[in-house]
Amino acid sequence: MTEGWRAYALLLGAMAIWGVNLSAVKALTGALDVLTVAAVRMVVAAIALTVLLFLRRERLPVLRARDLLGLTACALFMVYGNQILFAGGLSRTTATNGALIMSLGPLVSTLLAALVFREALGARRLAGVVIGFAGVALVILNRPGAQLGSGSVGDLLILTSLVCFASGGIAVQKLSKAFTVLQISVVIHVIGSVLLVLHAALSPGARLADLVEASVTTWSLILYSGVLATALAAMVWNLSIARLGLARTAMGFYWVPIFGVGFAVAFMGEAVTAWHLVGLVGVIVGSRLGFAPRR
């Protein structure tokens, strides 16, 4: 297998891990409260990333006050806010809907980068943004009576978590000039996990003690989500960017909803409607236009 095909195979594996993670987190929110799910997953991820940092013989960075402020802001968006909204959303909606909405990730990142760095989108990219969001809107609004019930609120929470993650990604782009991606990942996950644990410990609704009596299945899902989906898959994503380039790597993200919906149907017993298929087509077409090179 050539180096290029090996990189594609690793990327496809990472996308499968992320797709399965949606069903894993959905199952966890049925066994534990949302804050506990968010906190324990990120603690496990922070530990895994720290171990990986030392295995790669990298050192923790020396941080100036300005750097620490930027990394803390990044942690608030990418870890703390993102994980609370993500787990809260999946507790109210299906893994199928979550997979479709999460596939907007590259498109949301492109839109935010254009707004922050004042890059002109152009008619083609703007059309991609509209089509992509329209596809997700069809899925969110496809509820009985088109009412904004618990399921639709869950969809919107996941969409908001996606915006939080993409917003933090812009900060990462600036921070990556001074630190490696792994160093940034370790610091923001440590900060984010500390904030999540404090939030859970001080919240009356959180039940961290339930982790003591959690089943083997629950802990297996926690380890899968924290180690594989958050730590390992993220490193494969960054490695793919280095080997294949951002544009080709981003195309791999289209497989996340395919794997996500597939596993949700196979293992969660969720139903797929015609609206889900229409929404998926809208997201893929919109993303292709959104990533099209300007002419």
TrEMBL record:
An annotated GO cellular component: plasma membrane
Highest taxon in the source lineage: Bacteria
Bilayer-spanning residue ranges: 7-28, 34-55, 67-86, 98-117, 124-141, 153-172, 179-201, 221-239, 251-268, 274-291
Cellular compartment(s): Cell membrane
Database matches in SUPFAM superfamilies: Multidrug resistance efflux transporter EmrE
Membrane topology qualifier: Multi-pass membrane protein
Signal peptide residue numbers: none
UniProt xrefs under InterPro entries: AA-Vitamin_Transporters, EamA_dom, EmrE-like
Cross-referenced Pfam families: EamA
Keywords, comma-separated and alphabetical: Cell membrane, Membrane, Transmembrane, Transmembrane helix
Sequence ranges assigned to domain EamA in this UniProt record: 6-140, 154-287
Primary location: membrane
Protein's UniProt name: EamA domain-containing protein
Organism: Hydrogenophaga intermedia
